[in-house]
UniProtKB/TrEMBL annotation:
Cellular compartments per GO CC: cytoplasm
Name of the protein in its database record: Alpha-ketoglutarate-dependent taurine dioxygenase
Keyword Cytoplasm: no
Keyword Metal-binding: yes
Domain (TauD/TfdA-like): residue spans on this chain: 13-283
Record keywords, A-Z: Dioxygenase, Iron, Metal-binding, Oxidoreductase
Amino acid sequence: MADPAVTRTSLRIAPLKPGSGFGAEIVGLDIAQADDATLDAVVDAFNRHGALLIRGQTLGPADLMRFIRRVGTPEGHTIQDFTLPGFPEIYVLSNRVENGRPIGAHNDGVGWHTDYSYKEEPVMSTMLYAVEVPAEGSDTLLADGVAAYNALSPERRATLEKLRLHHSYRHFMETREHQRRELTPEQIRDNPDVVHPLIRVHPTDGRRALWPSTGTVTEILGQDDPKDLSLLEDLVAFMTAEEFVYRHKWQVGDLLMWDNRCTLHTGTLFDDTKYIRTMHRLWVRGDRPV
């Protein structure tokens, strides 16, 4: 059997989920020392594979910002409470408490979803950099919407192509299990409800992906009863079956990024009375789903 690591545009690339075609790990690369041409090759690999992992990094905030700008335009955050001082595009996820105050959002992102699905232009990419990692738990799971779509029958695809999802940030924030809060009038004004397709076309190469989400959806437009979300629940369960999912077990220094245009993701819980977890999250601005 051939070595899974191959050379492509000076990068050594190995599959994240062997046999599936989903995701890629770039081996032996130091992001902080890489030149712009190498970073552009990394971005190309990301756009083709849907998810990207680079282990063993030592990255300060400026390094993260340099890399994210090669991917695209950094996206700000709706909630500003836990952005990194001096770096408003870097959001801290952590259960660490300093001087009686949490330094980051805790248990954020638990539940299958795609980031900013409630926006007119959802974020294109999410990037997580591991600063502190529990010895067990806190895995991140990524579901491949392209593989899930391709596994549907042609008749099923044709039916789903006609459906649209009504997303609501207000509904999401006021009903979520963790970090629930009532929005201010300004937040409600700045985050109006939106409608997006259930099947999304990737702008890079036209591949189609199943694109449901949980938490933000209030209606399925195009079916007899828009308020009946049972179809959405069935599709999320289908897409998040083991055959379509990559489970990432974190190590300090991991840089993991995924393409929100063709995936779902969820965080998982850990023993927060025993362990500390600190991650830096960055987003890349996206475009209107089609």
